[in-house]
Amino acid sequence: MDVKMEGPGMEKVTLQDIIEMAEKAKLDLSVDLAKMDPTGKLLEQGMDSLDYANLLFEIEDTFKIEIPDEEYDVGKWDTIEKILENINDGCDQ
Amino acid sequence: MIGIEEIGIYIPDYRQMNGLKSYQGEKVDPDFIKNKVGFVSTARKAEGENTADMCQKAFHNLLSRVGDLDVNDIECICVCTQNGEYRMPHTSAILQDRLSLSGRCAAFDISLACSGYIYGLGAIQSFMEFNNFSKGLLFTCDPYSKILDTEDKGTDLLFGDAATVTLLSTKGSLKMGKSTFYTKGASYDVAITHEGGHLLVDNRKIFNFVLREGMDTIQRCMKSNQITDKDVDVYLFHQASKYVLDQLGRRMNIASEKVPFKAQTYGNTVSSSLPLMLQDYLEDDGIQSFFMCAFGAGLSAAATVLNRA
């Protein structure tokens, strides 16, 4: 799926969009995103580091964004809630 | 035209069993190791064993496979390593003496990591053809155990030691096609060893590089050689980890049986990764065409094709 990050008023990206993205890309994650606490850290809810890297890679490609190292390193993308906020903040700019 | 005639290999006997490891007091998950990382164990050279020793053992394996190789006929040797015997001189010079090769034999090292075999094949083949040489040897040996931090699970669980030697000759029946390359020098510090330090690797960035620039390199190589998936019998991808290969094969829609993962018991052996696998296929006439791709420190990626003549 290609989500265009252009201009105000476009639909917000939801968890369902992320789930569909993962399925379409056949990421075969070790956890069910739908069952995770959106405010809890992904790596503390059973997701392994490889799936985490893969998920973020797919998010970068699908939503045409680049996750800066400094944000990754300080955990700005480590929960579903933060991921969605970051993606949708990019849409609002 | 120069082609690959035979390959000799050496993998040390000792294995580090990854499922038994702990890091900072935390045990690794054996299922995660087996099913995701893929390296149930990694090979480790013996204490006191060094790069030239390992190359020499690979050469002995080559001799057992070729039978009638006269060392005086070897006109050039190349060693691909970033962890040679010494900082200087080049390890290939030491090997010239160890293997009793002619003093007229050219010897040079190339400094590349995981992409080194493909680069090395191109370099030595070109060198041989330009100089009308008939027989040459390409060694790969990069024993990372010399630089690993045994407390860093991001590297300690991945890398293994090994050496290979590829005999290239005018009799060689495996011919190389066009190669493609990618260099991302801005990411030079993604896999780095500082003077006197340990290997430091950002595995996430390596992963991203493989899936972006690595895939681009593969696609350009297929286009350059005018081939598609149906023209390839087997894909030999650098054995970075089982997970990387799974993701690469999946994203490229390649049938999993065409992307072998063979390094379960010895690990990521850097530039030895591809020739270790290739040796297994040399006598399999059912495999006529190979696609090879490797990616690693640099960051660097390379891809090529090999076809039986």
Secondary structure: elements and pairs:
The complex is a heterodimer of chains A (93) and B (309).
Chain A lengths: L14 H10 L24 H15 L5 H5 L6 H13 L1
Chain B lengths: L2 E8 L4 E3 L4 E2 L2 E2 L2 H8 L3 E3 L7 H16 L9 E5 L10 H8 L7 E5 L5 H15 L4 E7 L11 H4 L6 E7 L4 E3 L3 E4 L7 E3 L5 E3 L1 H22 L9 E4 L4 H10 L21 H9 L7 E8 L3 E9 L1
Parallel strand pairs in B: 6-7, 6-8, 14-15
Antiparallel strand pairs in B: 1-9, 2-5, 3-4, 8-9, 10-16, 11-16, 12-13, 15-16
Describe the model.
With 93 residues, chain A is an all-alpha fold. Chain A contains 4 helices and no strands. The longest helix of chain A is centred in the middle third of the chain and has 15 residues. Chain B is an alpha+beta fold. Chain B has 8 helices and 16 strands. Chain B has a 5-stranded mixed beta sheet with strand order 1-9-8-6-7, with helices on both faces. Classes of the chains: A mainly alpha (93), B alpha+beta (309).
